[in-house]
Structures are given as structure tokens and as C-alpha cells.
Amino acid sequence: MEATAVNLLTPEAVARQLSMSLSWVYTHKHQIGYVKFGKSIRFEPDAVAAYASACQRSPEHEGNRWESQSDTAKHAGNGSLPKRIRVSDINQRLTGLEKAKGKRESMPQHAKQH
Question: What residue numbers bound the domain in which 105 lies?
């Protein structure tokens, strides 16, 4: 039986290849996929390339530059995607919070204790 050479990358090599810090590589090792030998970890070159490819994003459209791409907004309930949150929505919510805070601070002391 002939042994085949296995070409694995060290965490330092992955950090250099991806232009990331060594701590970043250790933090993201589960997303990249790794091989563990005792306490040492190594990465398959194909897994690193696949991870980098999966992280690739297309250019954003100029009009959507300030829109949130997160899905933290609640679903509309009818199966549609959540509404995108815009800067104006956030500013409006912050203004409402400031007004509510001002009302609480202006309450008499005896009302706050109940």
C-alpha cells in the first residue's frame, strides 16, 4: 500500500492566503472546515478556496447604499420578506425614544415609585 502525500495548510498559511489575522482564522475555523491532529489544526486548500468563494459578494447598487441588508426586521406575516430598514426609519425610532425618555424624566417623583 503506497502512502499519498496530503497537502494541508497551517493556520498561519491560511491567514496569509486570506489576508486575515491568525486569531480570525482560529475564530472562523468551523466555517472554513479543518482537520484536527491532537491539538494541532490544519486546513485543506480546497476548503479554504471554497470558503473564500462562498464569501464573495456582488457589487451593491448605488441606490441601496444605506439600506440594511440584515433580516432583523419582523416578517410581514403574509410570507413576504421583511421590510428593509432605512436610516430614516432608525432616526424616527430614536426620536420617539428620546421623546418617551423626556416624558419619564418629567414625571413627579411619587409617580415614578409606583
Answer: 67-109
